[in-house]
Design a protein that fits this description.
- It contains 3 helices and no strands.
- With about 60 residues, it is mainly α.
- It has one domain (about 5-50).
Length: about 60
């Protein structure tokens, strides 16, 4: 993929489409993916429990 800031930084980004927030959160918690974008309200319980790290919000 071109045009992503990751290209300039020299690391690979792969776009993965999920059928909802729950499957993506499962992959994040299970270590299958290292980073994801999700609504804060969906991830907030896991952030509060210390299972996910919140880096920023838009």
């Amino acid at each position: 993929m071109t045009g992503y800031p990751a290209d300039a930084a020299g690391f690979k980004v792969e776009h993965i489409v999920y059928k909802g927030g729950a499957p993506m959160l499962n992959d994040l918690l299970g270590g299958q993916v290292q980073v994801g974008t999700i609504a804060l309200t969906s991830a907030l319980p896991m952030i509060r429990d210390g299972k996910l790290t919140h880096k920023s919000e838009i």
